Amino acid sequence: MDTRYIQQFKKGALEMILLSLIAKKETYGYEIITELNNRTAATFGYAKEGTIYPILYRLQDAGLIACRLAPSAANGSCKKYYSITPKGKEVLSELISFWHNYSLCVNSIIDQWVVGEEIQ
C-alpha cells in the first residue's frame, strides 16, 4: 500500500491515541513511544521521537496535557512526565465519540466490499 495513505490516517489518529495513552496514567515520552510501538507498529509502523514529541508539545500548548519534571534515577537528569488535564479529558471524550461515529459511517460504506465482492 502507498505509504501516503497510511501517513494520512496516522496524522488524524495520533493525537487521540496519545491522549488515550496519557489518560490511562501519568507517563513520559520514551514510555509513550514504547507502548505505542508495542501496540501499533504492525499497523502504523514505528513511531519516532521526531513525530511524537511535536504532538506532545502541541497538546501541551493547547492545554490538553500538563507536564512536570522529576529527577531520573538512571542518570541524574530530569524526566518530563505528562498527564491529561480536565480540558484534555473533555476533548478526548469528544474525539472518541467522533471516532466511533466516523468509523461506523465509513464501515457502512466499505463493508459491501469486504463481504466478498471485488472492487472493479
The level of helicity is 55-70%
Biggest beta-sheet profile: 3 strands, antiparallel
Instruction: Provide mean pLDDT, rounded.
Output: 87
N-to-C SSE string, H for helix and E for strand: HEHHEEH
Short structural summary:
The protein is an alpha+beta fold. The chain has helices at 3-24, 29-44, 49-61, 86-114; strands at 27-28, 65-71, 78-84.
Written overview of the protein:
This protein is α+β, with helices and mostly antiparallel strands and 120 residues long. Helix content is 67%, strand content 13%. It has 4 helices and 3 strands, in the order H-E-H-H-E-E-H. The protein has helices spanning 3-24, 29-44, 49-61, 86-114; strands at 27-28, 65-71, 78-84. It has a 3-stranded antiparallel sheet. A hairpin with a 6-residue loop joins strand 2 (65-71) and strand 3. Helix 1 (3-24) runs antiparallel to helix 2 and helix 1 crosses helix 4 (86-114). The protein starts with a helix and ends in a 6-residue tail after the last helix.
List keywords for this structure.
4 helices, 120 residues, three-stranded antiparallel beta sheet
Layout of helices and strands:
Blueprint: H1 3-24, E1 27-28, H2 29-44, H3 49-61, E2 65-71, E3 78-84, H4 86-114
Helix pairs in contact: 1-2, 1-3, 1-4
